[in-house]
Design brief:
Layout: E1 2-6, H1 11-22, E2 26-30, H2 40-47, E3 54-57, H3 71-92, E4 95-101, H4 126-141, E5 145-150, E6 153-154, H5 165-175, E7 178-182, E8 186-187, E9 190-191, H6 192-202, E10 209-212, E11 219-220, H7 221-232, E12 237-241, H8 243-246, H9 261-267, H10 274-283
Parallel strand pairs: 1-2, 1-3, 3-4, 4-5, 5-10, 6-9, 7-12
Antiparallel strand pairs: 8-11
Bound molecules: NADPH dihydro-nicotinamide-adenine-dinucleotide phosphate (NDP) and dtdp-4-keto-L-rhamnose.
Length: 291
């Protein structure tokens, strides 16, 4: 398949590139220097040069706290950008695969069952609202679409790029004697290596629609960080705290665990448990972006 990846220098973009190339696809990789998804002229200039069967958009505005003070920018990139891409793909009969977030949920703080794709969303942050709007535009405009919700991504490219929770903990764990970590937000952090393997399967199915895609199991940021420190052999005192004690600018879901059984049924792909994936990530070498 001829595939264009947008956001190719990001942590998910880089792992998708490796996984899709290994599966024999021809790739065009577009970075932020090549395309700005909130600009229609930039989209046409960058995409008219290739004739892909599929466009994969990993570009997004991901600064969850900052989005509270600049929601217009978050909406331009996370909602209007996907709308423009959906219009372009529909016009040119191209399939579009786009990523969304567990942060489209959050209203039901005391929820226990994992969310299925047809459960009603309820974002509680500007970032979550902007991602949900992006989903709706794509689902309404582009007939051949996959929209994939995931959570807490970490990939090797995050080490030198925009960062991720694992790399932040590895750094802070060495810099500080003590860390306070939220222990009442439940979700499932996911490796971009595993997510890329799942996407490589999904695009062969032509089973378009909305999907949940995360590692198995669930955890809190406190337990996740403690496991990072245990596996990496870092000694640092960790203190469990509540969401209120942390005082972040944006509200985060207390529960945003996603049920991924639809993806598993359609692709036959089973994500590893989050602890297994974290261990694999910590043991694997850094990315060579020239490969
Ligand atoms: N990170 C996470 O924990 C989660 C992410 N997601 C979603 O998964 C997807 C991939 O995330 P991830 O790989 O972590 O993101 P990254 O921030 O690692 O990568 C995003 C890439 O997109 C580029 N980009 C940013 N804005 C634009 C723009 N306006 N036009 C074109 N390119 C742009 C960035 O370039 P530059 O840095 O140069 O601006 C960067 O290379 C996103 O849709 C995100 O919302 C969902 C759940 C969790
Ligand atoms: C650094 C740090 C964070 N935290 C908490 C804050 C927050 O609730 C949680 C995660 O913090 P982060 O800033 O890594 O991540 P955050 O921006 O909340 O993460 C999100 O990214 C976006 C893009 C998504 O779509 C989500 O799926 C999610 O992974 O950890 C602590 O409790 N202690 C700390 O020392």
């Amino acid at each position: 398949m001829q595939i264009t990846i947008i956001g190719a220098r990001g942590q998910l973009g880089q792992d998708l590139r490796l996984s899709l190339a290994a599966d024999g696809h021809q790739l065009t990789c577009l970075t932020h220097q090549d395309i700005s998804i909130e600009n229609a002229a930039s989209i046409e200039a960058a995409l008219d040069q290739s004739s892909p069967n599929l466009i994969i958009n990993t570009a997004a505005y991901n600064k969850v706290d900052q989005a509270e003070s600049e929601p217009d920018i978050a909406f331009a990139i996370n909602a209007l950008g996907p709308r423009l891409l959906a219009q372009y793909c529909q016009k040119h009969k191209i399939c579009l695969l786009h990523f969304s977030s567990d942060y489209v949920f959050g209203l039901e703080g005391l929820r226990k069952p994992a969310y299925k794709e047809n459960d009603p969303p309820g974002p509680i942050s500007a970032y979550g609202q902007s991602k949900l709007a992006g989903e709706y535009f794509i689902r309404a405009i582009c007939s051949q679409h996959y929209v994939v919700r995931t959570c807490g991504l970490y990939g090797k490219a995050g080490k030198t790029g925009n960062g991720n929770f694992v790399e932040t903990m590895l750094r802070l764990g060495k810099e500080r004697d003590e860390l306070s970590l939220i222990n009442d937000q439940h979700c499932t952090p996911t490796s971009t290596h595993d997510l890329s393997a799942a996407i490589t399967r999904l695009i062969t199915t032509d089973q378009f629609g909305l999907y949940h895609a995360t590692s198995q199991g669930k955890t809190t940021w406190y337990e996740f960080a403690q496991t990072i420190f245990d596996l990496a052999g870092i000694e640092v005192q960790t203190n469990p705290i509540t969401t209120e004690q942390y005082q972040a600018a944006a509200e985060r879901p207390r529960f945003s665990v996603l049920d991924c059984s639809k993806l598993e049924e359609v692709t036959g792909f089973s994500f590893p448990h989050w602890k297994q994936s974290l261990s694999t990530y910590l043991e694997s070498p850094d990315l060579d972006i020239n490969k």
